[in-house]
């Protein structure tokens, strides 16, 4: 990864989070849902066309257990984060602001884990002679982090946190994936360990993307709106286009 990759990964969180300070909160959930649908479809797309084929090469039966482990891990993390990473915003107006601590913990642990293979993933593909295999994963994390940060910023503001506290929480959240990438690049993981780590990340992506895509629109009686369907198709289409990159 380049310095620009690390910076883009960090700044994407600030862009999404700070946007929550500027938008009309009454209409923000509709646009957040569409962006989440797009990013969820992109995550699912790159998982299918990039991450799964590359992680299963060479094939190992045990990698499936790591994928299941990642799926279950994300389930546990969302018990802490209350689903903020896929747009669930449940403001708290109680006097105690400590409710945000488990939410930040869940979001930060997830961000750290998904960043860990970013700088080391090219070691799985040394035979290809290229050094861009982290790019689909990088783009997927960025596109996922923007709406997640927006939801976090909106949650903090609607719960009565001041702007400075909101910005500090966003900075902390933004640092987690770059920090994970830095730590992962210095762990000297062997190919099997890196493959297992990718399996864990794939499992978390499968949980997040399918949760986003299969959540029906509010008051739609389990029907998906045309706007959401269009956003999903664009996300999948872009993910498929990355195969040729």
Overview of the structural elements:
- The chain is mostly helical and 245 residues long.
- It is built from eight helices and no strands.
- The chain has helices at residues 3-19, 25-55, 63-81, 100-115, 134-158, 163-185, 191-214, 226-241.
- Helix 2 runs antiparallel to helix 5 and helix 4 (100-115) packs parallel to helix 6 (163-185).
- It starts with a helix and ends with a helix.
Keywords:
single chain; 245 residues; mainly alpha; 8 helices; 70% helix; globular
Spell out the blueprint of helices and strands:
Elements: H1 3-19, H2 25-55, H3 63-81, H4 100-115, H5 134-158, H6 163-185, H7 191-214, H8 226-241
Helix pairs in contact: 1-5, 1-6, 2-5, 2-7, 2-8, 3-4, 3-7, 4-6, 5-6
Strand content: under 5%
How many distinct folded domains? 1
Low-confidence stretches: 127-132
Mean pLDDT: 80
Give the termini distance in whole angstroms.
17 Å
Number of strands: 0
Overall, the morphology is globular
| Helicity range | 55-70%
Q: Sheet bearing the most strands, described?
A: none
Helix-strand sequence: HHHHHHHH
Query: Looking at the chains present, what oligomeric state does this protein adopt?
Result: single chain
Radius of gyration: 18 Å
The assigned structural class equals: mainly alpha
Task: Figure out the total of helices.
Answer: 8
């Amino acid at each position: 990864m380049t310095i620009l990759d690390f910076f883009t990964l960090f700044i994407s969180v600030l862009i999404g989070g700070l946007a929550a300070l500027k938008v009309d909160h009454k209409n923000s959930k509709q646009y957040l849902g569409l962006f989440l649908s797009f990013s969820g479809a992109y995550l699912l797309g790159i998982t299918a066309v990039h991450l799964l084929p590359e992680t299963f090469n060479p094939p190992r039966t045990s990698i499936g257990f790591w994928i299941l482990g990642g799926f279950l891990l994300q389930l546990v993390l969302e018990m802490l984060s209350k689903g903020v990473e896929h747009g669930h915003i449940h403001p708290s107006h109680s006097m105690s602001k400590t409710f945000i601590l488990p939410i930040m913990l869940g979001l930060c642990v997830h961000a750290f884990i998904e960043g860990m293979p970013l700088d080391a993933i090219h070691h799985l593909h040394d035979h290809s002679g290229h050094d861009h295999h982290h790019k689909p994963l990088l783009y997927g994390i960025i596109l996922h982090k923007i709406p997640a940060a927006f939801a976090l910023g909106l949650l903090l503001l609607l719960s009565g946190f001041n702007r400075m506290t909101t910005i500090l929480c966003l900075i902390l959240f933004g640092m987690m994936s770059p920090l994970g990438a830095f730590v992962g690049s210095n762990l000297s993981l062997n190919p099997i360990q890196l493959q297992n780590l990718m399996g864990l990340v794939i499992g978390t992506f499968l949980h997040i993307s399918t949760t986003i895509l299969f959540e029906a629109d509010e008051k739609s009686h389990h029907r998906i709106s045309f706007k959401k369907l269009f956003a999903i198709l664009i996300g999948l289409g872009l993910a498929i286009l990355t195969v040729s990159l």
